Amino acid sequence: MKIIVEKGERKKEYKFIPHSLVFSADGKRLIFQTNDDKGWFTVFDGVESRYYQALHMSHTVISNDSKDIAYGVRDNGKWAMVVNGIIGKSYDELLPFAPVFFNKHNEITYGARDGAYWFYIVGSKASMRFEGENQLREELIRKAKERE
User: Which of 52, 31, 50 is nearest to 40 (CA)?
Assistant: First the structure.
C-alpha cells in the first residue's frame, strides 16, 4: 500500500500499481490505476471512478491542456475508452503498445479491433480500417509525431 498525499494532507491509502501513474503536463494533476477486492478503478485528482473488470495500463492519458482524461477499460467482456468519465464504444481489443493521445481538437485518438479489422479511432468515430495491427500502430505513431 502507498499513501497519497495531496497538498500536504494525508489522503486514502491505495495499492500501488507500477507504471500506472500519469501526471499532467504542468505537473498539477495526477491519474493512476489501482484495485481492491471489488475490482479495478482509476483515481483522478483524488476522485475514484466506478469499478471495471480490468484497466488497460498503457491507455491512460491527460490532455496537453490538463482538462481532459482518458483511460482504457474492460467492461462486460469488451474494451472501451473512458473520456472524462463517459465510456465510449466497445471493441474486442484496444491496440496494445501504441500511442494514445488527444489531438489538437482534444479528441482522444487510439487504435481498436472490432471483429477481424483494426480501426484508427478519433473521438467517437472509426476513421480508417486496417487488416493488421502493425499497420495501425505505424499510422498512430505517424499521427502522434505530426502533433508534436
Answer: 52
